[in-house]
């Protein structure tokens, strides 16, 4: 299933900047960065639980927030892109 | 059922593959061209003399992602595999049965039956779909001859005799398949199979598709814990994936030859897609390879009902399903190896 992940991390102190970097890194490991703090991740349920757990470990629930949008397997109907930085389809032909 | 994951094809001649965390990164020059999480992939195939970092190779081995290096023409060069894994008891069983002529004959007989049955179906489909546009009597004759060979297989008696029947069937089949080429007959024709190097456009296209299929079948055999190099129909030879070739036999007509025909008949490839070297070898150009790869990937994502399992599976998982069935047969869970027979 496709999961859209967005986050807001409080970066007023250096600990916050560190959390931001770590959260971004985990998201890159699991998916595609489509905007600065927006990721599209094609995951199976196990991977979703794993990633979610890791992010919860890193974040500070007092100041940060993370949102998971479940787009399901029919996600292509639910995503429309306009403008620069188009993304690739992780289920389509990948030829470089 | 396992999920069909994607295959990454790298056709850039100066690309370098590296690892970054859990990502596969494709670099060209100083520029990052592509980045994808490893868990979205089940295979990576690179064309041309590209490089890959040891860290990436390690990651692929650890995650069971098949990484193959091919020349820019699609000839196989090398494959990266991790430590020997899987079930040693299963592999021992496989070796024992491969050493036993009768046991090998039983398996190989099923595989050849599958191959000829599928070849026959390809011809019959052609007859049905293109009635009037082809010389039906020529194709019908081949269909009948193949049926005759099919009946003789159970009494083959020895592996060599079986190999002979397989060769006869292939000859009849390839002669008849020429009739199913409806478009661009001046460029594409089948006057016998040539390989290493392929000497005409149709053979070049077939060779390329076989290489893609071989990569998938080898990876599937490794996944279920079988040794791809110890075959039943094909003899052992250093560097040859005999079992992969065995399992490929029954899949070739359905997956490769049919695709080659439809690429030609729909004019997705044409004479401009090929070039000839001084030694007569014919190769596909980069643009055509991309067309073929795209068609191949799309085909793999389509679903069919597997004739033996009765379950819906993506076409790309057929090599895996067949490997699994073969492993079950070797273990003794099935009474015979059920080849993939397309209906």
From TrEMBL, chain A:
Needed cofactors: Mg(2+)
InterPro entries: CRISPR_associated_Cas2 (IPR021127), Virulence_VapD/CRISPR_Cas2 (IPR019199)
Domain of life: Bacteria
UniProt keyword annotation of Hydrolase present: yes
GO biological process: defense response to virus; maintenance of CRISPR repeat elements
CDD domains: Cas2_I_II_III
Presence of keyword Magnesium: yes
Pfam family, one: CRISPR_Cas2
Record-level Gene Ontology MF annotations: hydrolase activity; metal ion binding; RNA endonuclease activity
Residue positions binding Mg(2+): 8
Entries under PANTHER family matching the protein: CRISPR-ASSOCIATED ENDORIBONUCLEASE CAS2, CRISPR-ASSOCIATED ENDORIBONUCLEASE CAS2 3
Function: CRISPR (clustered regularly interspaced short palindromic repeat), is an adaptive immune system that provides protection against mobile genetic elements (viruses, transposable elements and conjugative plasmids). CRISPR clusters contain sequences complementary to antecedent mobile elements and target invading nucleic acids. CRISPR clusters are transcribed and processed into CRISPR RNA (crRNA). Functions as a ssRNA-specific endoribonuclease. Involved in the integration of spacer DNA into the CRISPR cassette.
Protein name: CRISPR-associated endoribonuclease Cas2
Provenance organism: Heliomicrobium undosum
Record gene name: cas2
Automatic annotation (TrEMBL), chain B:
Binding site for Mn(2+): 166, 234, 249
Keywords from the named record: Antiviral defense, DNA-binding, Endonuclease, Hydrolase, Magnesium, Manganese, Metal-binding, Nuclease
EC number(s) stated in the UniProt entry for this protein: 3.1.-.-
Family to which this protein belongs: Belongs to the CRISPR-associated endonuclease Cas1 family.
Pfam families per UniProt: Cas_Cas1
Molecular function GO labels: DNA binding; DNA endonuclease activity; hydrolase activity; metal ion binding
Keyword Hydrolase found: yes
Function of the molecule: CRISPR (clustered regularly interspaced short palindromic repeat), is an adaptive immune system that provides protection against mobile genetic elements (viruses, transposable elements and conjugative plasmids). CRISPR clusters contain spacers, sequences complementary to antecedent mobile elements, and target invading nucleic acids. CRISPR clusters are transcribed and processed into CRISPR RNA (crRNA). Acts as a dsDNA endonuclease. Involved in the integration of spacer DNA into the CRISPR cassette.
Oligomeric form and interacting partners: Homodimer, forms a heterotetramer with a Cas2 homodimer.
Protein name per Swiss-Prot or TrEMBL: CRISPR-associated endonuclease Cas1
Major enzyme class: hydrolase
GO biological process, one term: maintenance of CRISPR repeat elements
Cofactor field: Mg(2+); Mn(2+)
